[in-house]
Amino acid sequence: MGRIFLSAAHGGKETGGIDPGSIAGGTTEAREMILLRDLILTELRARSFEVLSVPDDVSAKQTIEWINSRGRRGDIALEIHADAAGNPSVRGASVFYIASNDERKSNADLLLMGLLRRVPQLPNRGVKPDTASGLGSLAFCRQTKVPSLLMQVGFLSSPDDRSLLQNRRRDFALGIADGLAAWSRSIDSGSGDGGEPTYAAINININGQNYPEQGILINGNAYIPIDLVDRLRIDLSKAPNVRRITYRRVVYVKAIELREFNISVSWDSGTKTVTLRSNLVICPGQIDRIMSHGNSSEVQMQIFLKNNNENALVQFPDIAKLYREEATTEGVNYDIAFCQMCVETGFLRFGDDIKSEQNNFAGLGTIGGGTEAATFENARIGVRAHIQHLKAYASLEPLVKEVVDPRFRFVTRGIAPLVDQLSGRWSADLDYGNKIMAMLKRLYESAGLM
């Protein structure tokens, strides 16, 4: 039986100080996760599992390095988190797995069901690929060498979830231990003879053509020969985090990590084929430039929106068309603007601060420092104001249409031509630009452009 690595999120040193994680209700994410982790450890060890606890004083990067320096075939790793949201009614548990890995998805199901059986009062938010996370990918899922998952046990910002966690901590621990035990038993730890493991061969398809050489499947992840990476003209010399392994004297790389180089990667479990597509219409140097062209169609944007909120188009059936028309008029990348709207409104779900009838799709404020967000007479004017505010940040060019953005004149023109430069400006969130870019990549993957 393999070993189990367990990490409690936060509490370590990040950017020169101790990172408490989310803070709510007089407690911190770090404190709650450490207490929960300790109970899980006790329960698993009572069941005769060998469990290794990641030290609490290490950073997120050091956590992965700590596990990787000790991990071996048959081991698994879990990091537990508590989520947070601005709306205290948002609650529930979820598990993130590395995208396009059916095996890891089934492992995530085992883990989540284990918790929910013990704490049925906890809403089920489902298992999700890490591409659906706020950052678009999760280092713990992608860079940890042994099979790994990241679990959100609930929302610390929710009084209901926080009360459950603090008053039924042992039930949480028992449920997670149940899931970890089931997951560990499902992992094939091999013959244990100390020799080189044997991996299953898989097929490779690139741009619609079958590649003559095969790849291999490791822990449910597709790996392709380094020769193919060279043929795709990808330079990995400055990408130390892309996983490489040597198997039978051939170097292989983890296929899913090539998405960072604008390679589309998908998996067909029926034929055991990994498909790669490199003939992208997106220019890598332009993808994050606000003043540029969009690439998706109105239909692709509509499908993406509906797949993430089935009611999104009921009130705003023409939202994709409006973004495409208004952004094109001002020379703004409509894909970026559309994805910013998805981030700001939660795919048109809105929230307590801004109501849908305000037609404010980007959290735009008013003049005079009032607490209310701006209101626009209809959806088109709301979209136009959003586009104009983006153009104010990204360009020195004058507006084509008459100004409707109430704060257009207060922006230092041209100070943020790239999406990442909106961080700390449009929003106080220093990760704001990354969230928009992660949403953009999700749109392009949904549309088959990436």
Can you give a write-up of this model?
It is a single chain. The chain has 450 residues and is α/β, with parallel strands linked by helices. Helix content is 34%, strand content 18%. It has 13 helices and 18 strands. Strands 11, 12, 13, 14, 15, 16, 17 and 18 form an eight-stranded mixed β-sheet that branches. A six-stranded mixed β-sheet has the order 6-1-7-10-8-9. Strands 2-3 form a two-stranded antiparallel ribbon. α3 (102-118) packs antiparallel against α6 (169-186). The radius of gyration is 23 Å and the shape is globular.
Overview in brief:
The protein is built from 13 helices and 18 strands. The chain has helices at 29-46, 60-68, 102-118, 139-143, 159-167, 169-186, 226-231, 298-308, 312-315, 319-330, 334-345, 379-394, 432-446; strands spanning 4-8, 13-14, 17-18, 23-24, 27-28, 51-53, 76-83, 93-97, 124-129, 148-155, 200-206, 209-210, 215-218, 221-225, 244-247, 250-254, 264-268, 273-277. 34% of the residues lie in helices and 18% in strands.
